[in-house]
Every structure is written in structure tokens, then in C-alpha cells.
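Data follows
____________
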Amino acid sequence: MEKVSFALDVEDGWPPVAVEHVWCERHDDLYKLVNAPFFIQGLAYGDKFTAVPDSVNGCVFEFTVVEPSGHSLVWVLDTETHAFGPVKHEVLKLGCRVEGFPVFGLHSIDVPLSVDVTMLNDSVASLEARGFSLAFPVWRHELHAA
């Protein structure tokens, strides 16, 4: 495994970092993401992608997903220190993976294709009702519903 650095476009102070580092497995020119990102749009756990790190700073500025994993991604932002623990437990029981970035109040939820989306919707609704902000930077489950 290797850590791959992605350069981020920061606008009005968001995201709060200019680079995100993620873990990937590398096979020649193909990378496979093995964790859920917090700020990289369009990339989910298990995606296989191509990218060429910049020769000066080593950061990836552009990538191409060549084999989507089928996983979806939900970002949860806690701006007022709500209790994420109970909902995190519910989401984990569904088969999701959750990663946290406590200093910024962020949680990244990896949603494997096997997760019951109806049950996940209940957890998401619970988060919204508790005041969490949500984003869905990668949502692929409707592609496999047919």
C-alpha cells in the first residue's frame, strides 16, 4: 500500500486543508482506493483509477476512475458537536465503514453495494434531524437497483 496525495481546490476556506492523503494499492499505473476520502469528489472506497502525481510536489491534480467499485460515499459534518456515536453504531451495523476526522468534525461513510439503502436512509434522516450537514459526493446505489 502507498499513500497518495490529492491537491484540493480550496474556496472560501473549504475544505480546511489543501491536500488529502489516502491509502491506495498500486498495480503498475492503476490505483485502488482502500479508504473513504473526506474531500476528494468522485472517488469512493474500492474505485480503481489512473492518475499521474505532479513531478514537482507529488500531488494528484486529476484522476480518471476506470473501474467504479459500486460503493457510495456520504460525508457528515458536525458543526455543533452533536452525538454522532449512536448513529455511527447504526451505520456500522448496516455494513458501512466510518472514518472520522475529529479536528474538523467530519465523518466519511463508505456504503458498500450490499447495504440496504432503505435502512441507510433512516440513519441519514436521523442525522439530518439531529442537525448534521450531509453531502453525497459519490452515490452509485441507484445504478444497481434495476
In short: The chain has two helices and ten strands. The beta strands are 2-7, 19-27, 30-33, 48-51, 59-60, 63-67, 72-77, 97-101, 106-111, 133-138.
